[in-house]
Amino acid sequence: MSKFFHNLGRKGADLVKKKIGSQGGGKERGETLNALARNDSAMYNIVMNPTFEDGTSWWWGLGCAVSVRDEIQSRYCVAHGRTEGWQGVAQEVGDRLEVDVEYQFEAWVSIYGPEEQAPVTATLKVETESSGTKYNSIGSLAATRGEWKLLKGKVKVNDIGKSSVLYIEGPPSGVDILVSTVALMPITSETPELIRELENVAISPAAQTQPTQGLLLNPTFDDGLRPWAAKGCKAYVTESLGDIRPAQGKYFAVATQRTETWQGIEQDITGRIEESILYNVKLTVRLLGGVKEARVLATLYMKSDDGKDQYVTLGSVNATSTSWSELKGEFQVHKSPRRASVYIEGPPGGVDLLFDSFFCFTPPRKRVEGPVIFQNPRYGLNIVHNSNFEDGLKYWYAQGNCKLFVASGSPPLLGGCAQKSLVNSKAPPALSGAFLCCSGRSYDWEGPAQTLTERIQPKMAYQVSAWVAIRSPAQPGAKHKVDVCLSVDGSWIQGGEVIAGDAWTEVVGSFRLEKEFQKVHVYLQGPGAGVDIMLAGLHIFAVDRLARVPMLRQRADQIRKRNVVVKLQDSRGVPLAPGTKVSVRQSRSSFPIGSAINQYSFENKAYRKFFLETFNWAVFENELKWGWTEPNQGQLRYGDADELLEFCERNNIPRRGHCILWETEDTIQDWLKPLSPTALEEAVHNRVKGLLSRYRGKFRHYDVNNEMLHGSYYKDRLGPQFLPYVFQLAHKYDPEAVLFVNDYHVEDGSDCRSSPEAYLEHILDLTQNGAPVGGIGIQGHIDAPVGPVIESALDKLAVLGLPIWFTEVDVESENEYTRAEDLEVVLREAFAHPAVEGIMFWGFWEGAMSRKNAQLVDIDKRVNEAGRRLLALKEEWKTSFDGEVGAGGELQFRGFLGDYTITVVDFGLSQKFELVQGNDVASFGLTFS
Asked: Are 301 and 295 in contact (CB under 8 A)?
């Protein structure tokens, strides 16, 4: 209730108070208001999440997909991918609906698609045991594209049944339904008047579906092109172009007669852009002519006071010629430029660019949330019922038209990752040996399923473990992808993925549901038609992730420390007297903890200061990438990389080189794509020679060909022998650099393409074909990290004997305390594993990272809880203490590797030494004169 009326503004909330307040005495009125404030499903609105503030929680797509458009001042839900008139936005209301009570229904609705007008209907579907399914029509109207209308109606039921679903349907195939601010309110003697007055104060979503004007003037082109300008092409504003209509509003702009990728429309923002402000970008764009799909970029151009030009990508999207696409991004500037403009570019020449709207605005700051408190976390308890199938198929059902049956012959023990998490729990690791077989499958999404709605908590980290196998009569011995997935209100998330054959294979993973939800079920899927799936011992349980901390501290003590004996004497060689007070301070840790940096952010003094105080290694985020150093053939630009390199050398910071090549197609420059194989190989040779000759000896590591497990651009065009050849070529031009492979989803179990087994096979193939691979890069973009899953991946890769680095660590959560715990899990697992030799963050500053809600420092320079957690761990991993000299002038301790200063307190004199890796006791003799 409170969320619903909050959307109507303060006047609507005051009206509710006034009406309720007129019904009784003071104390009674106060209690009524308090009850309403506590309960969203109180007497005036039984719809949960009525304004979609919690995304699609409680809602799902009935036969289609649903998503929420998150605008600056409002949100609304879109039902898309519709192929039938009955498909739309749905919510189960049966647990809040009352029999023989008349309800008033209201919702703001609109449509988007090829139709100017289409019917939109609200329906209540009631399924009963006795009389089957009954469809109660609530109300209907002719909705109009680009305009919001209020859909109203009334409904009363005499049986709630086992399911009562409220849904909004109606338009024909291909037309999206837009829904905002839904209410289903019981009608009392006071309600009609209250409803009428609320309608008078309610604000139509049409006035709230776009941000305020913000940084850019005329963002919706209502005033034509003013103050927009065509950049290298022609531009105009129109209401339609053939059958193309605006996504919203009345007009859209067209950039035509384009001959180059950089051409589009531009707006000068000189004097309006502010320093240290986080701007959000939202652009609605479409293509016309030439291609069906192309990358569109929003770019900020700035000229500094010293005349230097800067180009910053604000966001990008793969736009299409069939529908409008939305580009989103964020940015900040650290120094007011002499001149600045924003423009849109990207598609090749000959393709027209269409712009419905373009906003740059300052979003409201989110309230800082406290730590999430779980009242009854039930760590280690399997929330999957009947996972050993002692009760046959109880709780299980088939998703699709496949068949389920129980058989025996599966592993008798729980998978290794789960056992490590459950070591301190009461859950027995033994399994029954029974398994569930799913046969008669016609689609890859068909498989066994179980509803988990009442047993799962939002914001909790869960671990997944199961044994899976497949049986393919048509292809004996074949292997297929198998996924453990969760359906959450119509959307799905990954719980684990593996390549399985007829032998039992453990699938592992983890997840967290960030938002409130209405319906969750787990299911198995993956192989194509005719392939049977077998499932045994599926366990999903909440993880007390910090329970491993004592063990990880012990491991870190074993591998990151060394015993030390320091003999202290005076200038005459006489040992210092027993009891002499000394202080030992570690000034530098030798374990690399670094971060990605970028030249643009280095204008921010606070950014530079935090980096220097926190990190001891660096990697350039973009400035060494081929697309940056040679965006157009033969036009080399190394100036940004040179500036960052000079900064690092001045501050004695070692560097990783990222990256020589990038194997995924969407990162390839346009000028490379039409080259013949011979010309492409020549261009690659020039790239490797030019980069590594220029910076020979300047970078300790190189990521040679980024993400080879997820891309195959060069491999497809130049043959598989090309992959080891690039390593050989890099070694030729900088033989001292350690050459790394680098990929993502290696450590989290969510992608079979980059599983530890697939990575291991890939590295062995490279080395067996002559590639001098010197290190293994694990990127570390993790969503809900769980220690044993990470440890298992590291153990599997460690058999190669190569150093492992976490190369691009970031963890993402709106709640900074959850983010801090995620971060601690990753860092402790990495630091406590003997094969890991370094950790690199993929940025740390809000607005200067590729993932939102991953920052350690907020835009206002506040070090948040995640940043404080990192700093606390760095202090834990340093050795500093006050002590006394023992017999013979000896001081004994066990310390982390790095630089030390010992001070004799009585003398006020200090000496320095470095503690390096070694298995024996490190001995030092220090003289204090």
From this structure: no
Round the average pLDDT of the chain to a whole number and report it.
Answer: 89
| CB neighbour class for 652 (10 Å; exposed up to 12, middle 13-18, buried from 19) | exposed
- Residues 450, 580, single domain; the answer is no
Residues 34 and 89 grouped into a single domain: yes
Cα dihedral 834, 840, 844, 849 in deg (nearest 10): -130
| Spans of the chain, pLDDT less than 70 | 1-44, 70-74, 189-213, 425-428
Q: What share of the chain is helix, strand, coil (3-state, %, to 5)?
A: 20, 35, 40
Number of domains in the chain: 5
Give the residues across from 295 on adjacent strands. 318
Same domain assignment for residues 462 and 572: no
Q: Residue 383: inside a domain, yes or no?
A: no
How is residue 628 written in tokens?
């940056």
Number of helices followed by number of strands (H, E) in the chain:
16, 46
**Would 240 be classed as within a structural domain?**
yes
Tokens 């010197």, residue? 774
What is the 3-state secondary structure of 534-546? Answer: EEEEEEEEECCHH
Nearest to 298 by CA among 273, 331, 322: 331
Domain that residue 153 falls in: 2-207
pLDDT at res. 14: 44
* Residue 334 confidence (pLDDT): 86
Residue 381 located in a structural domain: no
Same domain? 785 vs 910: no
CA dist 312 and 307 (Å) reads: 16
Whether 632 and 757 share a structural domain: yes
Q: What is the pLDDT of residue 53?
A: 81
**What residues have CB less than 8 Å from 391, skipping those under 6 apart?**
none
By C-alpha distance, which of 750, 754, 761, 763 is closest to 710? 754
| Residue 852 CB neighbour total at 10 angstroms | 14
> Given this model, what pLDDT does residue 193 score?
52
CA atoms within 13 A on the CB side of 124: 24
Q: DSSP E strands: which ranges in 366-500? A: 397-399, 403-408, 434-439, 447-451, 462-471, 480-488, 491-500
Task: Give me the active site residues, please.
Answer: 707, 808
Same domain? For 872 and 882 the reply is no
Cα separation, 918 vs 187, whole angstroms:
79
Return the pLDDT at 404.
97
- 8 Å CB contact between 350 and 260: no
Asked whether residue 870 falls in the same domain as residue 882, the answer is: no
Tell me the whole-structure pTM to 2 decimals: 0.77
DSSP character at residue 572: T
Render pLDDT for 443-483 as a digit per residue (tens, 0 to 9).
Answer: 999 999 999 999 999 999 999 999 999 999 888 889 999 99
What is the reported pLDDT for 173?
Answer: 84
Q: Residue 268 belongs to a domain with what CATH number?
A: 2.60.120.260
CATH assignment at residue 557 = 2.60.40.10
Q: Do 423 and 339 fall within a single domain?
A: no
CB 506 within 8 A of CB 417: yes
